[in-house]
């Protein structure tokens, strides 16, 4: 039933519609079209415009969503600005690594999440390493 209806539209009604269209043979013929002629051409022009857009759309640059531009995705989002203060005198180890990729689950201390981040994105971030000299 549905296929018969589609076949009838394509084989009978569409050719009849296209025969009745007032398509001018030259560019100057478009100027002489009346308002009713333009209204009869409107569905065809709309479909052609839609097909043209769908054809060109895969080649158009995509806009990134604002969320894609964020660096900090989850750490202290309730604060307007994330600030961590570390007193150098309190460092117990000779080397301490601090996160700069914002992916660490132990933020601000680095848990080497930047390695996976760099592999996925092609980025090159690494930790901030503080070294304590022992005198």
Number of domains: 2
Q: Which structural class is indicated by helix and strand composition?
A: mainly alpha
- As a whole number of angstroms, the C-alpha radius of gyration is 32 Å
Put simply, the count of helices is 4
Note the gap between the termini.
Answer: 91 Å
CATH superfamily of the largest domain: CDGSH iron-sulfur domain, mitoNEET-type
Low-pLDDT windows of residues: none
Question: Do you know the CATH topology of the largest domain?
Answer: Ribosomal Protein L9, domain 1
Helix content: 40-55%
Give me a quick take on this structure.
This protein is mainly alpha-helical.
Overview of the structural elements:
The structure is a single chain. This protein has helices at residues 2-20, 27-31, 35-56, 113-121; strands at residues 95-98, 128-131. It folds into two domains: 1-59, no CATH class; 70-134, 3-Layer(aba) Sandwich (Ribosomal Protein L9, domain 1). Strands 1-2 form a two-stranded antiparallel ribbon. It is rod-shaped and about 95 Å long. The model has no long low-confidence stretch (mean pLDDT 87). It is mainly alpha-helical and 135 residues long.
Main attributes?
135 residues, Ribosomal Protein L9, domain 1, 2 domains, 4 helices, 6% strand, rod-shaped, 2 iron, 2 sulfur cluster binding, mitochondrion, iron-sulfur, metal-binding
Topology diagram in text:
Layout: H1 2-20, H2 27-31, H3 35-56, E1 95-98, H4 113-121, E2 128-131
Antiparallel strand pairs: 1-2
Family: Belongs to the CISD protein family. CISD2 subfamily.
GO biological process, one term: autophagy of mitochondrion
GO cellular component, one term: mitochondrial outer membrane
